[in-house]
Amino acid sequence: MPDPARLGVVGLGYWGPNIARNLNALEGCELAWCCDASQASRERYGPVYPDARFTADFDELLADPDLDAVAITTPVPTHAELATRALEAGKHCFVEKPLAQDAASAERLVAIAGERDLVLMVGHLLCYHPGVRLLSDLISRGELGEVYYLYSQRLNLGKLRADENALWSLGAHDVSVLLELADGQPSEVTARGEAYVREGVEDVVFAYIRFDSGLAAHLHLSWLDPHKERKLTVVGSDRMATLDDMALERKLTIYDKGFDPHADTYGEYITRSGAVVSPAVPNDEPLRLECRHFIDCLSDGDAPRTDGVAGLQVVRVLEALQASLDAGGAPQPVGATSSSA
Ligand SMILES: NC(=O)c1ccc[n+]([C@@H]2O[C@H](COP(=O)([O-])OP(=O)(O)OC[C@H]3O[C@@H](n4cnc5c(N)ncnc54)[C@H](O)[C@@H]3O)[C@@H](O)[C@H]2O)c1
Questions:
Q1: In what order do the strands lie in the sheet containing 53-55?
Q2: Domain-located, residue 263
């Protein structure tokens, strides 16, 4: 990989400019191309990145033999097609979450990247959040004991989307964190949701995800809510923890709470309500860490933390949840991982 790696960003709408800003600021990376179908976007960001070449034509960017990698930050329905073209042109690929709209397309992307030995990374931003990393370490060290269940709230009066519902837009974040924190894979899911503002596009979704191990997760996802909440609660056999991303301090809190067997009475339990501690969570911007990780993977050849396979697993869970939504909340199995993926 040349140093600096030459990158192109495709899609400069709401989110893409954040990726472009971070990539442009990173050592070892040159923002060589910006691509957007909209002339207004190109005119807006042209003066911000005077050294980058701007185009409306994705093929023009792919034809540059010196371009090493592409970051795809276009709407979700375009991800699979644009990522396929980028990988087939021999470019390493960062794709915003979720990787694709269906598991079959995500599987194909994983296969193409594997065949061509290209890095495929999905922008599951929260997996790079220092608070999630701390929580993940706590869980893997066994400090919470056995994780029984967890639940998350991702609520806001937020961006009203037409091309994806609250499950795919917001749930992609929580499912990626859930799969990172939990042992094993989910086996069955249930989801109910309602579309109040735009017909056919659910604004609020309640999702239930169950693992074979018995671990369960509940997600409350909504962009139609008076509260801005991004909170995850994990209940373990020994301790419990919350990660509150809206809190300015004490983002991560660990509660020494639970039930202990009563020493004198067989089969009786007493509640334990001990210390409550909040380890400091580093203030590093998750998006910067995510972009840094992509560039490091390009130069080291390592598989990203959120590689294509991780992205595929998220899509499988979302697809099963969508099937449950469509079936009025009927439980659905989660597709298995094929050996190639
Ligand atoms: N990680 C996060 O927290 C986060 C937050 C918001 C959005 N996202 C993700 O970012 C992606 C983009 O979302 P958004 O809200 O910025 O969408 P958006 O609609 O605001 O912007 C998309 C841009 O892509 C351009 N575009 C579309 N098709 C194109 C094509 N074929 N070639 C070139 N340009 C094209 C459009 O002109 C537009 O400027 C989505 O995958 C979304 O899930 C991630």
A1: 53-55, 29-35, 5-10, 69-72, 92-96, 120-123
A2: yes
Q: Whose CA is nearest to atom 27 of ligand 1?
A: 74
Residue 341 lies in a domain: no
Tell how far the Cα of 11 is from the centroid of ligand 1, in angstroms. Answer: 5
The pair of structure tokens assigned to 95 is 């794709």
Cα–Cα dist 283/84, whole Å: 35
Distance in Å, CA 272 to ligand 1 centroid: 48
> Against a cut of 0.85, is the pTM above it?
yes
Task: Give the other-Cβ count within 10 Å of 303's Cβ.
Answer: 15
Distance 36 CA to ligand 1 centre (A): 10
Residues 125, 97 contacting (CB under 8 angstroms): yes
- pLDDT tens column, 284-302: 999 999 999 999 999 999 9
- Residue 250 belongs to domain with CATH number: 3.30.360.10
Domain membership flag for residue 76 = yes
Does 340 fall in a domain? no
| pLDDT tens per residue, range 40-91 | 999 999 999 999 999 999 999 999 999 999 999 999 999 999 999 999 999 9
Whether the pLDDT of residue 336 is over 80: the answer is no
Which residue has its alpha carbon closest to ligand 1 atom 8?
A: 15
Q: Which domain holds residue 199?
A: 127-286+319-333
pLDDT at position 158:
83
Site residues for ligand 1, CB cut-off 6 Å: 10-16, 35-38, 41, 58, 73-76, 78, 96-97, 123, 125
Amino acid at 232: L
